[in-house]
């Protein structure tokens, strides 16, 4: 497979790293959009190196998450984690989801992609963005893959609490925001799509316990609603913790073996359900 060069840029103000199809005659090609982790790899360029999905004959456009890379927040994580639900999880996911339609429109005008449904991939908090797109129903999606995804906002807050923070004081506003980002509860909205997009749910064997539990419950909540249960698959990657790359995960780095296993699984999923 020939070496391909990444294309860096912005679309509607959103940074991206785009990888063209390795097959030169695949024009126009399908489009896969990803949202990276807030852990390593924590930028679009680093996520593109960790999960290049090079076997998929599609444009893979890795979008930068809010508050990361060139858009890093001024106050730092300490300020954001002072209220992890309302200063971190909720605004990051909301902004990424709200800015996506304009970015997608610009990407479609810039690259030779077909006009069909897209593939979406999300890692960690980027998984909550991918799930927001799925549950929203406005953007046609052909297939989706989630990696160590933040399926429930409350589990993200619990992880932050477990890192030595004070117990979080929930109030009416933060509980409502967490309810909006509980995608087990919203599985019916994903399953209500016509057609229902095949969903691959990937978790590391050593990922946060709450994340693994949520992933299993999401997969089951979708499976019972799908008329083709094999269009929902859950898999565990041995030896994989939460991050997919070495820290700090800002710059592109060689692909780790566990990330390569994730890359193979997602590539096979999209080869079966997107291309």
- Average pLDDT works out at 94
CATH architecture: 3-Layer(aba) Sandwich
Q: Tally the helices: what do you get?
A: 9
The neighbouring-strand order within the major sheet is 1-2-4-3-5-6-7-8
User: Beta-strand percentage?
Assistant: 15-25%
CATH top level label: Alpha Beta
CATH fold assignment:
Rossmann fold
Going by CATH, the homologous superfamily would be Alpha/Beta hydrolase fold, catalytic domain
Stretches where pLDDT is under 50 for at least 5 consecutive residues are none
Question: What would you call the structural class?
Answer: alpha/beta
Task: Tell me what you see in this structure.
The protein is an alpha/beta fold. The chain has one domain (7-273): 3-Layer(aba) Sandwich (Rossmann fold), CATH 3.40.50. Helices cover 39% and strands 17% of the residues. It has 9 helices and 8 strands. Strands 1-2-4-3-5-6-7-8 form an 8-stranded mixed sheet, sandwiched between helices. β7, α8 and β8 (232-237) form a beta-alpha-beta unit. It is globular and about 50 Å long. The model has no long low-confidence stretch (mean pLDDT 94).
Tags for this entry?
single chain; alpha/beta; Rossmann fold; eight-stranded mixed sheet; 9 helices; 17% strand; globular
């Amino acid at each position: 497979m020939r070496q391909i060069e990444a294309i860096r840029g912005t679309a509607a103000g959103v940074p991206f790293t785009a990888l063209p199809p390795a097959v030169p005659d695949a024009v126009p090609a399908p489009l896969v959009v990803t949202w990276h982790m807030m852990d390593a790899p924590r930028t679009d360029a680093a996520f593109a190196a960790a999960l290049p999905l090079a076997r998929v004959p599609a444009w893979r456009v890795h979008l930068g998450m809010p508050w990361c890379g060139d858009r890093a927040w001024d106050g730092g994580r300490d300020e954001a984690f002072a209220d992890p639900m309302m200063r971190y999880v909720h605004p990051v996911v909301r902004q990424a989801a709200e800015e996506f339609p304009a970015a997608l429109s610009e990407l479609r005008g810039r690259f030779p992609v077909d006009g069909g449904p897209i593939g979406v991939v999300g890692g960690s908090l980027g998984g909550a963005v991918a799930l927001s797109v799925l549950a929203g129903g406005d953007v046609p999606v052909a297939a989706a893959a989630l990696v160590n995804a933040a399926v429930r906002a409350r589990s993200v807050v619990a992880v932050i609490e477990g890192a030595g923070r004070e117990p979080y004081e929930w109030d009416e506003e933060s509980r409502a925001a967490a309810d909006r980002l509980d995608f087990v509860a919203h599985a019916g909205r994903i399953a209500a799509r016509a057609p229902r997009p095949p969903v691959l749910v990937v978790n590391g064997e050593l990922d946060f316990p709450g994340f693994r539990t949520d992933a299993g419950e999401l997969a089951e909540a979708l499976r019972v609603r799908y008329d083709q249960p094999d269009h929902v698959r859950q898999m565990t990657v041995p030896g994989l913790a939460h991050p997919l790359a070495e820290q700090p995960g800002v710059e592109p780095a060689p692909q780790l073996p566990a990330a390569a296993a994730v890359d193979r699984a997602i590539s096979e999923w999209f080869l079966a359900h997107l291309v």
